[in-house]
């Protein structure tokens, strides 16, 4: 168990009871979970709630467990909302072990919540792998008057998300991986600072943002039906001009080499890129050039592709001078030519670059990770000597870490 304190109940995640990722895919192990481990978990949770005698002072309640027969998440939810001081609730019910019946649905959730005292004090609510439909969502954003953060993940019933005022304290909104999501419309939310909106990988959704004067952080994803250009184009120019930090998860096929909207005040961008051997990084260069004031860039090369280092010569693309980019980090580096193309583009275009960090692939295969690190140690020094001769390596860093000499002198 993580901890059980006078104002906090954090129920143990199933992983802490001794399972591993490799075991998830063994039929015998799944049967063992369903017949032995799950009932024990339910018994443990219920025993904790039965013995907890200070619900009035409860401030935090979290539970992370697969959905399964015999569990009673409704009771857990109502238990937490019985406190007049509850501030944070997180319930995560993964569906893998209950695939026959799908995600968990709260058939009596709304009716039972209406009179609970915690509605007035709850500041943060996170629901994962739980069926929340449009009416449920509307109830949450209108009745939770103190809500500062709302996160809904993996709900197959959520389709049309509408937030139009009425949530005076809401600062963070996350709508992620909802398979049949059709639209997200957020307007007149005066204190919203961060919006995370990740659609499904299969369906297109429409994003509309209006009158969100404090919104500066935006996270989104792109797929073949919902390109990054389409998502960004759905945001008004005035809202795009507010953005200071952007996080994108996508791949080159979901990017266009034209029509990328300008993000003229963006300072910090994170790219989670699922690249493959024959992909081109050129569209990402166009995106970087659409952010003229960008100061910090983090590129995470991700996906199931930590293969052997590939031989080949990287291409050098024409690049515009970028006068504000100072810090660049590559993570998940494998050693493909496309990654070196990305590095060459940065080293050529970022005329005021001060720091470049390369973190090799962190997959489970130690030999591949070491091969990627060795490839970086071989290929990057010549690039730095050619494009940034005033950079020096930081020997004490566990990663390949280059810093401009002038920064070291400060």
Question: What does this 3D model show about the protein?
Answer:
With 410 residues, this protein is an alpha/beta fold. It folds into 2 domains: 1-131, no CATH class; 243-410, no CATH class. The chain contains 10 helices and 21 strands. The strands form 3 sheets. The protein has a 16-stranded mixed β-sheet with strand order 1-2-3-4-6-8-10-12-14-15-16-17-18-19-21-20. A 3-stranded parallel β-sheet has the order 9-11-13. β16, α7 and β17 form a beta-alpha-beta unit. α8 packs parallel to α9. Residues 1-6 and 14-25 have low confidence and may be disordered.
The major sheet is characterized as: 16 strands, mixed
Helix content: 25-40%
Number of domains: 2
Widest sheet: strand order? 1-2-3-4-6-8-10-12-14-15-16-17-18-19-21-20
Shape: globular
The tally of beta strands, per DSSP, is 21
Q: Round the Cα radius of gyration to an integer and report it.
A: 24 Å
Counted by DSSP, the helix tally is: 10
Mean pLDDT: 80
The class by helix and strand makeup works out as alpha/beta
**CA-CA gap between termini:** 47 Å
Unreliable runs: 1-6, 14-25
Portion of residues in beta strands equals 15-25%
């Amino acid at each position: 168990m993580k901890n059980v304190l006078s104002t906090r109940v954090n129920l143990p995640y199933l992983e802490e009871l001794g399972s591993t990722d490799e075991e998830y895919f063994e039929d015998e192990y799944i049967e063992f979970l369903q017949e032995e481990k799950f009932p024990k978990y339910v018994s443990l949770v219920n025993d904790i709630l039965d013995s907890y005698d200070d619900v009035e002072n409860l401030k935090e309640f979290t539970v992370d467990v697969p959905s399964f027969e015999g569990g009673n998440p409704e009771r857990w939810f109502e238990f937490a909302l019985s406190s007049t001081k509850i501030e944070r609730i997180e319930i995560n019910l993964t569906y893998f072990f209950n695939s026959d019946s799908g995600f968990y649905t709260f058939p009596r959730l709304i009716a039972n919540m209406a009179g609970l005292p915690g509605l007035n004090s709850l500041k943060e609510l996170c629901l994962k792998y739980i069926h929340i439909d449009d009416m449920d969502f509307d109830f949450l954003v209108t009745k939770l008057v103190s809500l500062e953060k709302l996160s809904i993940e993996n709900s197959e019933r959520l389709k049309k998300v509408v937030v139009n005022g009425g949530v005076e304290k809401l600062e963070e909104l996350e709508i992620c991986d909802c398979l049949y999501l059709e639209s997200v419309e957020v307007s007149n939310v005066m204190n919203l600072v961060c919006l995370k909106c990740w659609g499904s990988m299969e369906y297109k959704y429409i994003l509309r943002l209006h009158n969100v004067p404090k919104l500066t952080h935006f996270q989104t994803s792109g797929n073949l039906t919902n390109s990054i250009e389409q998502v960004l184009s759905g945001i008004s120019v005035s809202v795009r001009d507010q953005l200071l930090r952007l996080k994108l998860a996508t791949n080159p096929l979901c990017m266009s080499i034209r029509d990328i909207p300008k993000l003229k005040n963006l300072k910090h961008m994170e790219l989670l890129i699922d690249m493959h051997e024959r992909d081109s990084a050129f569209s990402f260069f166009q995106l970087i050039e659409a952010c003229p004031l960008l100061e910090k860039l983090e590129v995470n090369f991700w996906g199931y592709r930590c293969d052997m280092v590939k031989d080949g010569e990287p291409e050098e693309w024409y690049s515009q001078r970028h006068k504000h980019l100072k810090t660049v980090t590559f993570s998940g580096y494998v050693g493909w030519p496309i990654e070196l193309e990305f590095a060459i583009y940065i080293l050529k275009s970022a005329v005021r670059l001060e720091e470049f960090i390369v973190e090799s692939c962190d997959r489970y295969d130690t030999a591949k990770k070491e091969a990627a690190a060795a490839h970086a140690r071989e290929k990057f020094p010549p690039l730095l000597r050619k494009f940034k001769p005033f950079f020096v390596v930081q020997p004490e860093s566990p990663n390949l870490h280059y810093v401009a000499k002038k920064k070291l002198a400060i």
